[in-house]
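Regression test case RT-17, inverse folding.

Input:
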């Protein structure tokens, strides 16, 4: 074989290797992800914190380019989503049902951008809706409250009075009654505007009132306002139940458990799908069956639970998954 032919074939082989490497690299190229948090911000120790944790995990493990913003109010949402889309971000994620209308509008204007909405439903070819069976988790922690209550009186503290939180409430009540049909359940909401998610002082005031009425376990679905419940529960030596993220660590031995809503998993999985070019629009639901919702048990609260109590709660969980226990759904049975 002549030298020139050998060099030609060798050069062709090298170019093939280089082109293969380029194709492989581009297939896993970093994507740009924009995360729009609501007013509660990444440090609300609840819903937004969980979303932020999922996104930063993707940043560390998948190498994505991540930028997050915190909305000052609902009026700023459209501007924030538009800015990400105009700057050619591959995926824009809105956190919270209040962003649904904005995502619907902006997604229509930028059909080549992928969007996701947490806790909201948007029917569009470039939007993934991440929804949770929160009623299943609320039923489970309602059962937990009834198991641990000594007075037979438990409380529910809602943030903003909206259908989503009514869904928590109705299922929580059913879970309590499943364990103790004679239990008394105290229900209060902080308000009817978005400010209800960020009012710990009001939450503490309501919690103290419920405790004064003999409530010894109180579950909150109130976002950042929940810290007020934890303070009241710690002062009065009763139990509180957290929500969304694992809040057991905030007041160990006071937080009985937390109803986990794995927003972090939903956000991470969505980013991973977009990175792998496997993003699909439509509704994705997370429930007890796939641990999308659950109750939290860790070193901060495990000593509060006997083996028999833990087993009882796990048995109830299995019955819900097997549909042997029908959990009422506010969205279906109004």
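Golden output:
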């Amino acid at each position: 074989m002549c030298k020139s032919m050998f060099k030609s074939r060798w050069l062709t082989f090298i170019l093939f290797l280089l082109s293969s490497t380029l194709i492989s690299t581009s297939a896993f190229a970093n994507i740009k992800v924009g995360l729009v948090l609501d007013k509660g911000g990444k440090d609300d120790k609840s819903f937004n914190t969980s979303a932020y944790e999922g996104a930063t995990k993707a940043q560390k493990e998948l190498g994505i380019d991540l930028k997050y913003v915190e909305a000052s109010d609902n009026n700023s949402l459209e501007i924030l989503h538009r800015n990400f889309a105009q700057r050619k971000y591959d995926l824009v994620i809105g956190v919270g049902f209040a962003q649904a209308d904005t995502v619907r509008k902006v997604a229509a204007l930028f059909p080549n951008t992928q969007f996701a909405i947490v806790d909201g439903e948007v029917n569009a070819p470039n939007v993934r809706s991440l929804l949770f069976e929160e009623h299943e988790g609320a039923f489970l922690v309602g059962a937990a409250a009834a198991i641990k209550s000594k007075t037979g009186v438990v409380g529910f503290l809602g943030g903003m009075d909206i259908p989503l939180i009514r869904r928590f409430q109705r299922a929580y009540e059913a879970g309590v009654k499943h364990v103790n049909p004679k239990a008394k359940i105290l229900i209060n909401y902080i308000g009817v505007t978005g400010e209800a998610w960020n009012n710990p002082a009001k939450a503490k005031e309501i919690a103290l009132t419920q405790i004064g009425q003999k409530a010894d376990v109180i579950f909150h679905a109130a976002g950042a306002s929940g810290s007020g419940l934890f303070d009241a529960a710690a002062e009065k030596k009763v139990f509180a139940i957290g929500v969304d993220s694992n809040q057991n660590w905030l007041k160990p031995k006071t937080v009985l458990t937390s109803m986990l809503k794995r927003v972090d998993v939903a956000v991470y999985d969505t980013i991973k799908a977009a990175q792998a070019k496997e993003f699909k629009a439509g509704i994705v639901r997370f429930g007890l069956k796939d641990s999308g919702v659950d109750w939290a048990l860790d070193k901060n609260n495990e000593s509060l639970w006997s083996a028999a109590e833990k087993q009882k709660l796990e048995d109830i969980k299995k019955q819900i998954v097997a549909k042997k226990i029908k959990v009422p759904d506010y969205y279906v049975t109004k």
